[in-house]
Specification:
With 297 residues, the protein is of the alpha/beta class. Helix content is 42%, strand content 13%.
């Protein structure tokens, strides 16, 4: 039987910041970025501090990749709705916090924002999206390239390597069929369990470290309260956003129909059709028809 494991958002907040457990995050990021990631340190910055309301599930880490580049990776696990703007703000804040005062802009850190989402962000049928910055010509559609001098200065191959990159993992779109190592990680992120046949880097350690049964009573109580809070937030989301949106659509449709009836009646009136005929065709009262003016609708 597959054991239930600690959710990844709780792990980010409480467990994965420990150096002894770096192998878990290193495994996940190596599979996602398709390079060998080694964590150098967890960054102590404003962006990395735990929020007072205990909902800020993120960690900023400095890593070295397979090409020996030093990169800042921001991992977030969130259920928020205003997310596209938030990840832009967060990556910009990370950049500004880690550029030393008086340093040249050439020293701006490369940032990769990894976002694990428990809600549908926009419209799309994939479950992993990757965003970069590219400059494309308006006339000939060619991509702007770095000069040889710029490549030497920045130690990168293309312009996109200088700007933040964004990975969006939409767990709801994943069909629970793990076809490769990254899918095995996404299965865990979505279902909080690791199948015995999974071999992705870092999952073996995650299975040991994140076992709920290994928590002491105090830790388990705090974790259960955290899970209850997530269920409450999900319910609030459904009741306030989803239902509210559906009600708004219905109201909007009703208003649209009413407006269409009024416009039809006004056009009939303008064409010289008598009020009794218009009332019979549209269901409007004689008083409503008398006050109709096409320019006011």
């Amino acid at each position: 039987m597959t054991r239930k494991l600690i959710s990844f958002d709780w792990a980010i907040k409480k467990i994965l910041r420990s150096k002894a457990n770096f192998g878990i995050l290193e495994g996940f990021l190596s599979e996602l970025l398709m390079t060998d990631i080694r964590i150098l340190e967890v960054l102590d910055s404003e962006s990395n501090q735990e929020a007072q309301d205990n909902k800020f599930n993120r960690v900023d880490i400095k890593v070295k990749d397979g090409d020996q580049r030093i990169i800042i990776i921001e991992v977030q696990y969130s259920r928020e709705l205003d997310y596209l703007q938030r990840i832009l703000y967060a990556s910009s804040k990370v950049i500004s916090e880690h550029l030393e005062k008086g340093a040249a802009y050439a020293d701006v850190s490369k940032v990769i924002s990894v976002n694990i989402l428990h809600f549908d962000l926009g419209k799309g049928d994939d479950y992993v999206y990757h965003g970069t910055t590219r400059f494309i010509g308006l006339h000939n559609h060619s991509e702007l390239q770095l000069s040889a001098e710029q490549k030497k200065l920045y130690q990168v191959k293309k312009i996109a390597d200088l700007y933040p990159e964004y990975y969006l993992i939409e767990l709801r779109n994943f069909n629970d069929v793990a076809k490769d190592a990254l899918d095995e990680w996404i299965y865990f992120l979505k279902n909080e369990e690791i199948k015995n046949k999974f071999n992705a880097r870092g999952l073996k350690q995650a299975k040991e470290v994140l076992d709920v049964l290994k928590m002491d009573s105090t830790e388990r109580l705090a974790y259960e309260r955290h899970q209850e809070q997530l269920h409450y937030e999900a319910s609030m989301y459904e009741s306030t956003y989803v239902l509210g949106k559906e009600e708004g659509i219905v109201i909007g449709e009703d208003r649209g129909i009413q407006k269409g009836v009024l416009m039809t009646a006004a056009k009939l009136k303008q064409a010289g059709i008598d009020s009794e005929t218009i009332a019979a065709a549209t269901g409007l009262s004689m008083a409503q028809i008398a006050s109709l003016n096409l320019t006011d609708i």
